[in-house]
Amino acid sequence: MKVVALVSGGKDSCYAMIKCMQYSHQVVALANLLPADDSVDELDSYMYQTVGHQIVVTYAECMGLPLFRRRIQGSTRHQKLSYRMTMGDEVEDMFVLLNEVKRQIPSVTAVCSGAIASDYQRLRVESVCSRLGLVSLAYLWKQDQSLLLQEMITNGIVAITVKVAAMGLDPRKHLGKDIGFLKSYLHRLKELYGINVCGEGGEYETLTLDCPLFLKARIVLDEFDVIMESSEAIAPVGILHPLAFHLENKEESNSISGIDKTSEICPENVGFVYEVQGDFLQSSEATCQSAAEVTKLDAVAEHRLRISRTKSYSTFSICCWLQDSCHTSAGLQEDLEVVLKKIELELVGCGFNWENVLYVHLYIADMNKFTIANETYVRYITQEKCPFGVPSRSTIELPLLQVGLGSANIEVLVANDQSKRVLHVQSISCWAPSCIGPYSQATWHKEILHMAGQLGLDPPTMTLSNGGPSAELEQALENSEAVAKCFSCSISTSAILFVVYCSAYVPSPERYKIQDKLETFLKQMRLFESERENISKALDPIFLYLLVPDLPKRALVELKPVLYAPEEMDMAIGTMQDLSSVRMPSYWGFQHADWHDSCFQKCVVHGKICAVILCFTSELVEKICFDSLGGGKDNGNYPLSVQGRQMESVLRFCIYLLDKLYMQTNFSWEDTKNLRFYFPTSIGLPVEVLSLMLNNAFNELAEMDQRVIIGEEPIFNLVPVLGAGSSATSMDNILTCELFASKS
């Protein structure tokens, strides 16, 4: 991509340009913001470094690139972490600046910045980029600062301190000193006082005088003053004010790959400085659709729509799909529009909106139409509608049409409060894959961390890892761990559940490698974590493997972890009650048997979380049908084949087993957050029939047990797949059930 680099003069923004070039991007212009008054060294700004701005003007000549500069007219007006366009805010100066760069150099598609740890700065750069249709590149984001500082020095960045403001740094001693000279001293201060060695906590700021990008000349600082802003004994604050400097020409050197030599700017203006003036621009963002303006559904679509909803008050799932038994789907875009409208109406009917949604499962019938699906999705779920953060998302292709469904199916997890914390990094970095669009890497709510579906994408290049499904899974695991660390947890010790989506493009002999890689990776990571942090408590996660037709980007594997991430780690692993003290009911003639344990995996956090995976293979189905006494009512609603009657028995047994697990773990059906039944298309039963079977079974349970209260809407979601199982090598279950319940 062709890149405009935001430069403050500091070491970070210069090294960010070097990283861009290492990843084959081309820097075509520089952009800088400076104080309105030349005599002012520093502004009271959380956003911009301006110390040394008198020298930054020479970067155009040093690099042979056009430099666009704008004098800052705004101030800090929008002080919340997540930024929304605010007239008169200093961020709008950046918008005006980059908008002018884009106007003069239309081929620019990305912006690079030196953000390392500041969410405040990163989110504002991403906001401006989103509004201008540009990609944010932040290759230093979340990188180890000690390693970064050494890399900068090794890569030839000559930068001096121009501001110090930390315990142990004396303006009279340490201003004007090279970072290479100060490196060991900075590490000593880190050990003594916990400072950030790259200055990310405001401990110091730098000015780059030379680096490999300065092809034409280096900067020589001849004279400067030390201006004391604070003379406190513990942490005095001082800045360097340049008085005299000159450029020292370099011998003609070979052009560095990544410095643009075919600029769209006229050749005589290469190295020219552009002063970008003008008032703040009005936003071109589309007006959001308010809750009162939600479009009504047409009667035909309404007739085909189906809804399910769990009964929990605090956090619940809503699923919406189109029943299309006659295969009359209008197409993906139309079907998705209808489903999104219906979900929106349901949310509004509950007094909520998209901002209350924690997670979205987006199921589509054809991954080749992913772009259409995404374009439709973003018209409904926007950052403007979700001021507390957009929901996380996974997108999967399913065989929807084959079982009588429409082309799109959506399940949303909804919270009745605004206590969620969202991690949404849109910048491309070396940290984890970016989410360029209205979905986030992870959403935390009431101690549960819901991660977006992770592909095996190499973060800096956003391309799938080479080496097949196991290589993709390993990268997806590394990406998931990077996200987990942002919430002070680890997938190796805090995971409740791993759902692994396997593409049908993975050959059968290769599938065993997926499971082997997952188990080995988690085992090694858990060992490493226990040795490093002496972790004694760890959850024993459960696993579900699903075979699906296709995944985004034609990936072979997608990983979806769910983690337990309390503010304070007080993990209490759940246990089953002693069956001898619990009188278990005998629904539909089913009696407790030891082999029932082979049907399920469970992960329980005592008094908080209960996650269960039920797997029914053909062998278990035979046992279930043999043990069943046919205790259910005969239903004339649908004719059943022998296979259908077997499925009816399995579904009843499934509900019986879930009810038993709930009783043993002191949970109830009202604690259910989501309940999914995965079935293979090979069983030959349409969704309509399976749904009737399940509804009847739940109604029968409610008649037999007054603890169970059934509402008008079903509480389950039926999900068609090509295969499912607790193992990647045997995804041949007749039925698979995934349940997640929590007390909060």
UniProtKB/TrEMBL annotation:
Q: Spell out the InterPro entries in the cross-references.
A: Diphthami_syn_dom, DPH6/MJ0570, Rossmann-like_a/b/a_fold, RutC-like_sf, YjgF/YER057c/UK114
Cite the Diphthamide synthase domain residue spans from the record.
1-229
Q: Does the keyword Chaperone apply?
A: no
Q: Which GO terms describe its molecular function?
A: ATP binding; diphthine-ammonia ligase activity
Q: What is its EC number?
A: 6.3.1.14
The organism's superkingdom is given as: Eukaryota
Record carries keyword Chloroplast: no
**A GO biological process held by the record:** protein histidyl modification to diphthamide
Q: Which catalysed reactions does the entry list for this protein?
A: diphthine-[translation elongation factor 2] + NH4(+) + ATP = diphthamide-[translation elongation factor 2] + AMP + diphosphate + H(+)
Keywords, sorted A to Z: ATP-binding, Ligase, Nucleotide-binding
Pathway assignment reads:
Protein modification; peptidyl-diphthamide biosynthesis
Name of the top EC class for this enzyme: ligase
UniProt family annotation: Belongs to the Diphthine--ammonia ligase family.
Alphabetized NCBIfam families for the sequence: MJ0570_dom
Name of the featured protein: Diphthine--ammonia ligase
Q: Which organism is it from?
A: Carya illinoinensis
